[in-house]
Write a structure and sequence with these properties.
alpha/beta; seven-stranded mixed beta sheet; six-stranded mixed beta sheet; elongated; MFS_sugar_transport-like; transmembrane; transmembrane transporter activity; hydrolase activity
Length: about 1250
């Protein structure tokens, strides 16, 4: 069994390692464009920049950058990692007041409005959160119109006084120099009483107002011409060129080698980024030279990636790239108070300069949400006065750089200046590249909350008239799971793609999520998703930055020079988990990851000469419906083969991924199952439909959307999205045209019957059984879980072996029954003290250290028992060390392990892992009892004395302690409490994707909230009131259950049967082992039952019959009937353990788990400690049988109490609520406007 568990733990790692070495879809059949791997040279390539500021040895370089557009050299202190600025010196803009008031009058206005808003929030005259929020906005609008410069301070004061956020978070969210001036513009200019107000309130918190749905579209007059009836793309030339797709560089010039890479909040690997769970001045994980999973790209990693491009893609100055698309985000994930215009301009100058140095061919960049200041904010030119040009500084700067690098001519550069960084350019091959500023559909651009319109598709129309093919390049993707953009603009964008595809728009490119993803745009708004309606693919490029929990990567396309279709896509990556162990003589290794055609083509039955277009990708999704393993492959590649990527093996995840790929708009993405979108943290899935928002009924909603960036009316594509409703006749005509065109266009492809969209893939009985029994969860759990299960197995093997002979050992030493009972009780008392102490300090001293310490105590006790016969010395060794008198858990192990498993898993799979945790323990106990029984019997038969055979068992026990200590050394830092405490808040929020992280109005808008430090000592007084109340009730019930268990432990059951039936140890060990094996079968079924009837009912309905069997156990005079009762009881008695562990994990806060489990185990052990004493007294008086009857009655009382107190409690990870229950939960969000709910600001 131990060997099997070791293999189980290693298999997932070996599989991932094998894939990483070979690459998906590699091999001679497809070939690769260049070398298979590139090892970056050690040391920084100083030729990358012309001059440098001095920097300490071992730290990243500090280029002294000269900006040719601004005609300045950026100062050293701007990027000095030890002097990070904490305030933004840039100018702020307010709407023009509607009248001129004196300062005193303005202050009076603000005071009056604050009072009125407070009354709305706290009063009862207005009911419902959404109504309160909109009413408060309507009042606050006057403040923005009369005293705009005082509004930010008033918002900070209101935020703080209402308890909406902490004082520091309120300041960071609403101070004038962060987002306060922007919110003032929104208040002053938006229609706060209408749909604008609903969007504003939803942006602040979805507990205020639900996110509005898609408004009806009115497309009258949007398109200058109808879609041509017989539009065709040009014939393929057969000549392929190489095109690079790079995205989300997120250069961090303030990266500090050796700083904390496991910080508690914000961007790690910074001098000011700390882990609050450890003492000040200490570092838990040191930032490597080349980056980490929680950090942005240091210069050394970014330059290694750029150096790898040529060798991996097979390009050079002599054989250049045809062109490169860069899909946005240059700037690191700064807190807003650390950002400035100058810092953004530095990043733009630095990265564009590196791209020019290392990439051959022109680069066509788009701006990302981080490429501005304040982050994600861009203003339409239609705003009044200077508000319409408040971000022109950025457009002027990037346009000048792009022209300076030779990528844009003067005409295109001027377009970029006027159109928010967007432009249209025809390259040397005849392809028209149109870039857009997707901040104008991004939900975190608060200025989108102001109603604007004026769409324009003139550039696309001109391309159609000229017979040109177009690539659209943006940053924030338009669809996937619908979590990032606003619904109306992406709905309009979808209609535009439909109108101009597939004959004009060949491909669409995004970044933003940092992940390797794909989308498909269909005809007729995606209402019929099939091979014949798939129009255009959307390629989401992998990021260079590893943030969060991803590998670093980029992609190469092979593109036809006439159709500009993609015929092959190769992705390359660097394994970030290897960075800490890199030798000083070697840089990162970038290597070939996979070929898109070779990975997905065979399963999709795709012809070798057909392009990787939208039809290809729809065929891939059909193959995914037939084979869930293909989705698992897609999921692994989505994270660029990161070791941090969660597995996607269940039907819900498979269905969701297929749905996301087929969703090119928010409306389609929101209709998919939520919670499976990002691989940057464990999945937090919700039931289908729980995130579907009510549809807005108001017409005329406008949003800024497609065009060269924000698409102003005089520019290309679109600038605003007035909502449109297509005419049925023209719509049908377009659909028919699209169908017929696709049918002829892809006549060379192999077709097959298409399953219904989003149909769950067929699954075999074996797959269903594996999932039902938790095997799927077990195999795909982290390595640490496998190690914890393995140590549990061998520990319980040791306990099982010692408990069989413990009472017999003392009898062989001629100690009385009363002394044996006293020993059992005092041993348990000692365990209470040691376990409580170690449990309370486990999180502060380190869980791994405590597990190792406990294992060494096992070795100490085993060695003493193997060599000493004195009763009091043995008692002292048992009290101070670890000896199990009952065969059950003893010591600090279980509390620490269960708390660790709880934070390494999520609520949806936790009961599966706990079930196997119990099974491994039961099998270990059974194996130990079996081995011990036959070993001692065999040794005695070979001439050993009874006492000598027992001492041999204790030597084995001591050796197992050493093995367990050795295995604990291999546990990773992820097991520690500070790893759980340092989790970003969004990782704990269900249904929120990590791709655009930090919520706007959660603590730390520009950075996630800093969690409270994990206390050094955790006692019951530190628990929340709710947890304390729950814990008191549980401890009262567990006391009776554990007292009963202590009265009849396995050792005393063995003693009772040996006395009553005069059984040899070998036979007795076999019977107990068989009972344990039967118990294991029951434990395996516990998780499956819990999923159907709930945790509490599973605990009670399986445990109660076992209590009855226990009470009847001493009555039969027949050995056979006694064994039947023993086995019947064993089959049910421990089925409550896994649900109980999951129950405990769910009813307390994550940071309370170790303390609560330690307290519970202490109470249980204390009650157990008196059990053997009672049984010993009864046995000494000839009434041994009474102990079984009393124990059974106590256990039955425990079951009734659990059912009475907890059967109605809603538990995380318990049965999923019915839709009606979920709807009620959403309605309850309206109860209080003052709750500190997370808002919708996000970052990536």
């Amino acid at each position: 069994m131990a060997i099997g568990c070791s293999i189980m733990a290693v298999v997932p790692l070996l599989a991932q390692y094998t894939l990483a070495q070979a690459g998906y879809g590699g091999g001679a059949s497809t070939g690769i464009p260049g070398v298979s791997s590139f090892v970056a040279p050690a040391g920084y390539p100083t030729s990358a920049f012309s001059s440098y500021y001095p920097s300490p040895s071992g730290q990243e370089p500090q280029p002294a950058l000269y900006d040719p557009v601004l005609n300045i050299t950026f100062p050293r202190n701007l990027t000095n990692p030890d002097t990070i600025p904490l305030n933004d010196p840039d100018p702020v803009y307010y709407p023009q007041p509607i009248t001129n008031l004196s300062t005193a009058a303005q202050q009076a206005v603000i005071k009056s409005i604050l009072s009125e808003v407070s009354e709305i929030i706290n009063g009862s005259s207005i009911q419902g959160n959404c109504s309160k929020c909109i009413a408060a906005l309507s009042v606050a609008k006057s403040a923005a119109q009369l005293a705009p410069s005082l509004v930010p301070a008033a918002m900070v004061a209101l935020c703080t006084s209402s308890g909406f956020h902490s004082a520091s978070t309120c300041a960071e969210d609403f101070e004038a120099s962060t987002f306060g001036a922007i919110w003032t513009q929104v208040l002053g200019l938006a229609d706060v009483a209408g749909l604008d107000g609903q969007y504003i309130c939803s942006s602040l918190s979805t507990s205020f107002c639900p996110a509005p749905g898609v408004s009806p579209l009115n497309m009258t007059g949007l398109f200058p011409k109808p879609k041509p009836a017989n539009a065709k793309k040009p014939a393929a030339s057969g000549k392929l060129v190489k095109v690079l797709h790079m995205s989300d560089f997120h250069l961090d010039p303030r990266y500090k080698v050796g700083s904390e890479s496991n910080c508690s909040s914000g961007l790690c690997c910074r001098s000011n980024a700390l882990n609050t769970a450890i003492p000040a001045g200490q570092v838990s994980n040191s930032a490597p030279l080349y980056g980490a999973f929680t950090c942005d790209t240091p210069y050394d990693l970014g330059l290694a990636a750029l150096q790898a491009v040529g060798p991996l893609t097979g390009t050079s100055k002599a054989n250049p790239l045809a062109w490169t698309v860069y899909t946005g985000d240059l700037v690191s994930h700064e807190s807003q108070n650390e950002l400035s215009r100058l810092y953004a301009e530095y990043e733009e100058d630095s990265i564009y300069g590196m791209l020019k140095t290392y990439l051959t061919g022109p680069v066509y960049p788009a701006l990302g949400n981080h490429d501005t200041n304040p982050e994600a904010i861009d203003a339409p030119h239609s705003l009044p006065g200077p508000l319409g040009t408040q971000f022109s500084w950025n457009y002027d700067h990037v346009a000048g750089l792009w022209q300076h690098e030779g990528w844009l001519n003067s005409t295109a550069a001027e377009q970029a200046r006027l159109h928010y960084g967007g432009y249209s350019v025809k390259n040397q091959y005849g392809l028209r590249v149109i870039t857009i500023n997707t901040d104008f559909w991004y939900r975190s651009n608060f200025l989108n909350l102001i109603n604007t319109s004026n769409p324009d598709v003139s550039e696309l129309q001109a391309a159609e008239d000229a017979g040109e093919r177009v690539w659209i390049v943006g940053h924030v993707l338009s669809g996937w799971d619908g979590s990032n953009p606003l619904p109306n603009p992406t709905n309009l964008f979808y209609q535009i793609v439909d109108r101009y595809s597939p004959h004009v728009i060949a491909n669409i490119f995004f970044g933003h999520t940092h992940e390797d993803q794909q989308m498909i745009y269909y005809a007729n708004n995606g209402t019929n998703q099939s091979l014949s309606t798939a129009l255009t693919p959307g390629w989401i490029g992998p990021s260079v930055t590893p943030l969060n929990n991803l590998n670093s990567g980029f992609r190469l396309y092979e593109v036809d020079t006439a159709t500009f279709d993609i015929f092959e896509a190769y992705t390359f990556y660097a394994n970030v988990s290897a960075f800490p162990s890199l030798p000083s003589t070697q840089g990162p290794t970038y290597k070939f990851e996979y070929s898109t055609r070779a990975t997905y083509g065979p399963a999709a039955h795709w012809p070798a000469d057909a392009p990787l277009n939208a039809t290809f990708w729809h065929a891939v999704t059909e193959a995914m419906e037939r084979d869930a393993g293909l989705v698992s492959t897609f999921n692994t590649l989505q994270g660029k083969m990161s070791v941090k990527t969660p597995n996607c093996t269940c039907e819900a995840c498979v269905e969701a991924k297929i749905c996301y790929i087929r969703s090119g708009s928010v409306a389609l993405g929101r209709a998919c199952p939520q919670g499976w979108g990002s691989v940057q943290s464990p999945y937090k899935a919700k039931l289908l439909g729980t995130l579907l928002m009510p549809q807005a009924t108001e017409s005329g909603r406008h949003f800024l959307i497609l065009a060269t960036s924000h698409w102003p009316s005089t520019t290309h594509y679109i600038r605003g999205s007035k909502v449109y409703q297509p005419q049925p006749a023209s719509r049908n005509h377009q659909a028919q045209t699209s169908h017929s065109e696709n049918a002829s266009r892809y006549s060379n492809t192999t077709t097959h019957p298409a399953p219904a969209p989003n149909m769950a893939p067929p699954r075999s009985f074996a797959q269903k059984a594996a999932q039902e029994l938790g095997l799927t969860t077990l195999v795909h759990s982290p390595r640490d879980v496998h190690l914890l299960l393995l140590t549990r197995l061998i520990r319980m093997f040791a306990y099982g072996s010692s408990t069989l002979i413990l009472a017999l050992f003392f009898a062989a030493l001629n100690h009385s029954d009363a002394q044996i009972g006293l020993f059992m009780s005092l041993t348990l008392v000692g365990d209470v003290l040691i376990s409580l102490l170690l449990t309370l300090v486990a999180d502060s001293l380190g869980r791994r250290r405590i597990l190792i310490m406990g294992a060494l105590l096992m070795t100490f006790s085993g060695a003493v028992f193997a060599t000493v016969g004195n009763y009091w010395i043995l008692l002292l060794a048992a009290v101070l060390g670890v000896i199990s008198p009952s065969g059950n858990e003893i010591g600090p192990f279980r509390a620490v392990e269960e708390s660790t498993i709880a934070h390494l898993s999520d609520a949806t799979t936790r009961s599966d892992i706990f079930a196997w945790y119990v099974v491994f323990g039961t099998l270990g106990t059974a194996g130990g009892a079996l081995a011990c029984g036959w070993a001692t019997q065999g040794l005695q038969a070979a001439g050993w004395s009874e006492l000598a055979s027992f001492r041999f068992v204790f030597w084995v026990y001591a050796g197992i302690g050493l093995v367990k200590a050795g295995l604990s050394l291999f546990l990773s830092p992820a097991c520690e409490a500070q790893q759980a405490a340092a989790k970003k808040p969004e990782e704990e929020a269900e249904g929120v994707d990590l791709q655009e992280q930090q919520p706007f109005l959660a603590d730390g808008s520009a950075a996630p909230p800093k969690p409270k430090p994990v206390p050094k000592r955790i006692g019951i007084t530190t628990l929340s009131a709710k947890s304390r109340a729950t814990l008191i009730r549980l401890c009262a019930l567990f006391f009776f259950d554990s007292l009963a268990s202590g009265m009849v432990p396995n050792s005393l059951i063995a003693f009772f049967m040996e006395r009553k039936f005069n059984m040899p140890q070998g036979k007795l060990g076999t019977i107990l082992a068989a009972a344990s094996f039967v118990s294991s079968i029951g434990n395996i079924m516990a998780s499956s039952i819990a999923k159907r009837i709930g945790l509490v009912k599973t605990m009670v309905f399986t445990h109660l019959p076992s209590a009855i069997f226990l009470a009847l156990f001493p009555l039969p005079t027949s050995l056979v009937i006694t064994i039947i009762l023993l086995v019947a009881r064993a089959s049910l008695s421990s089925m409550d353990q896994a649900p109980r562990s999951a129950f405990l994990s769910a009813v307390v806060l994550p940071e309370e788990r170790t303390a609560v489990m330690g307290i519970v185990n202490t109470v249980k052990t204390m009650s157990q400690s008196s059990g053997p004493l009672i049984t010993g007294s009864l046995a000494g008086g000839g009434r041994f049988w009474v102990a079984f009857v009393v124990a059974g009655a106590l256990k039955a009382s425990y079951d009734v109490g659990m059912l009475t107190m907890f059967v109605g409690m809603k538990i995380e990870g318990d049965r999923k609520p019915e839709p009606a229950d979920e709807e009620a939960e959403h309605e309850s969000d309206e109860d209080s406007l003052t709750g500190d709910a997370p808002a919708n600001r996000s970052r990536s």
